[in-house]
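Section 3.1: Structural characterization of target chains.
Under the original work plan, the team committed to producing a structural model for every single-chain target entering the pipeline before any wet-lab resources were allocated. The record below documents one such target. The sequence was received from the expression subgroup and is listed exactly as submitted; it comprises 340 residues.
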Amino acid sequence: MTETTPADTPAVIATDTIAQFWAADERVRGAVTPNEADGTSLNGGPISTRGLSGFRRSAPALTPAERLHLELYGYVVIEGMLTPAEVDQLRGDIYAIERKFRSGDDLRTLRPAFVDPELLRTDTADNFRIHNLPHVAPSFFDYLTHPRIVGMTEELMGGRARLVRSDAHIRRPAANPDDEKYSSDNFHRLSRGQSGTTANGLYHFPFVKALTNLTDWTPEDGSPSVIPGSHKLPADLDEHAVIGAALGDPSLIHRVHAPAGSTLIYVESLLHSIGAIRSGRDQVMLLGGYAPHMFAAWAGMEPAAELVRRLPEEYQRFFLGWYSTYWSGINARSLADQVG
């Protein structure tokens, strides 16, 4: 029997080799000239529901208590980050794209966005995930450039950020939620081997994620779990031993429960997991990954050149990187400065 690959599936809007992703990245860089902003519409519609005259960041974006929570635990949950109307719009846009995908509509107009190829090969095919979102809909652009979300990630990194990944998820209840692969105890971290740094008494890390729930996170909805404080553990420490120790004492694991529209900001070196859904309800989420400007975007995550051409230079730098300038206003601020 021949296995179906993403390239064989017309509805998939993915290139399926790393070499092709790299080539696409180079085409984006070659096609975009800084300061070539020529309008705020794309494909006949608006890029954003906000004005693009200046890329605002909230400053400070974190309260002293929120920054202390991040310092101690490696994560913080901000309830009410999005309004109910924003939640409804984002959730509706994600479901609309999935409906087109399931009906076999040609989604190539959304390139370089792509549907997660792995979901088409496994028994999780009822789930849905699409990557590389800024150009797909104004709601996605506005979320990924949200003044407070970007501000929080920059305060945690200690410098200006660029977007390095983005994806939208629809997770559905598994036929057998007790299967070990759906366990909330499957902790992981992608930044093993990287290390953070301390400046002015505050911890900074070069890869930060903002995960927002568009449906409630309850104990029955497969909400995220973290091992608090694990973001500062040495890279050469046996992670299995750490996870085993945490599982032996439930107080060492924090389960995240929050109403729809809340945002989980966390350091990628934090051991984290997502659990099985037992409520029977879909879980819909949106994620942005942020890193300093000298970092490359993930494979396939470079933005659409047609989008970047239409943006002011500050937005172009946010999406493309190209330069590394640390923000002294962030690095100079200590927790004592915030409290004072």
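Residues 6-339 form a domain with the Jelly Rolls fold (CATH 2.60.120.620).
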